[in-house]
Amino acid sequence: MSRIRSRDTTPERVLRGVLRRAGLRPQPHPKLPGAPDVAFVRRRVAIFLDGCFWHGCPQHYIAPTTRFSFWADKLRRNVERDAEVDAVLQGMGFRLVRLWQHELTYVGGLLARVGAALDEHADPIPPAFCDGKIWWACACGSVDVRVVSVSERGSLKPAGKVRPAAASLRCRSCSRGWIVPVPEKLI
């Protein structure tokens, strides 16, 4: 157990890389209760990346066949501690995002969840399609929205064959920023 790293693991580095490519600058390992993996302290958002084995993922957890009672107690304590940390951080006014390790492969969904937590306004207005182009509107009513960055290689142009999973947007009127999943096909 002493050789298991708790900081700067490969999944954490992948998560930070995904967030950076989306134009976000999270603070790694802030000094907060429960030691979130990354956080946006000023915006009061804490993100935890839970390993499927260590936190009992309902899809991927397989109980060890040896020392079953030890591992069952270990998992139970981890889940209880997660609930306690969630309650403390929510009491401090933080919004929480708990991601499973296997969710790192779904970049669009991951960015949409983080973007929803970062969004202080109402839910983002879904994209509209006109003449084969994607148009986004801000919650303030403005359609003067620019794309700051995309999650991976691809094009938002109508002729583009590969689309990124998500895009980071910013309203030019109210300076509000948010992340949205990019639709696969244009209507």
TrEMBL record:
Q: Which Pfam families match?
A: Vsr
Question: Molecular function terms in GO for this entry?
Answer: endonuclease activity; hydrolase activity
Alphabetized UniProt keyword annotations? DNA damage, DNA repair, Endonuclease, Hydrolase, Nuclease
Give the record's family classification.
Belongs to the Vsr family.
Record's protein name: Very short patch repair endonuclease
Any one of the GO BP annotations: mismatch repair
